[in-house]
């Protein structure tokens, strides 16, 4: 790498009368492209896709083997269904190897208030979900943690529209949290 940098500095940058790069610059360009290609090839050996099959371990099969405990409430229903889809999108039943336990708490805040009418025009729904991945037979958690999601929604004078907007915010939060939980669980299972 040092040799490439030294050769690069030694070659002057010249333009010929037509505005095209001269032969010296094409040498620089060739050296730069060669160095970039060499670095790319060296780093390509370090990359390992998370969902790629490894020796004796199928990450997608491991994710399909996760049983999700029911989460109470409407938001819990959305979160459970999103997790089922993300972890086992095939729909086939598999023997559970792991148990995923999820609990959550949510809070709402009024972000903006119309000064003329005194009504809220925007709300924020914040949800924090705690999760634990346990072996199906019991034992210590393989991983545990929490994820946080925040969704904003507009409020108007129509009550039904406000209820529907709040429900849509819950669905967006459930999708975001399910994606975060799946990624963290998959990385734990891939590193085992």
Quick one: CATH class of the largest domain?
A: Alpha Beta
What is the share of helical residues?
A: 40-55%
**How many domains make up the 3D coordinates?**
2
* Radius of gyration over all CA atoms, rounded: 27 Å
- Please report which band the strand proportion falls in: under 5%, 5-15%, 15-25%, 25-35%, 35-45% or over 45%: 15-25%
CATH topology of the largest domain: Double Stranded RNA Binding Domain
Any idea what the shape is? Answer: flat
Describe the structure.
This protein is of the alpha+beta class and 192 residues long. The protein folds into 2 domains: 2-44, no CATH class; 59-190, Lipoprotein like domain (Double Stranded RNA Binding Domain, 2-Layer Sandwich), CATH 3.30.160.150. Helix content is 43%, strand content 24%. The protein has a 4-stranded mixed β-sheet with strand order 1-2-3-4. Helix 4 (74-87) runs parallel beside helix 5 (159-190). It starts with a helix and ends with a helix.
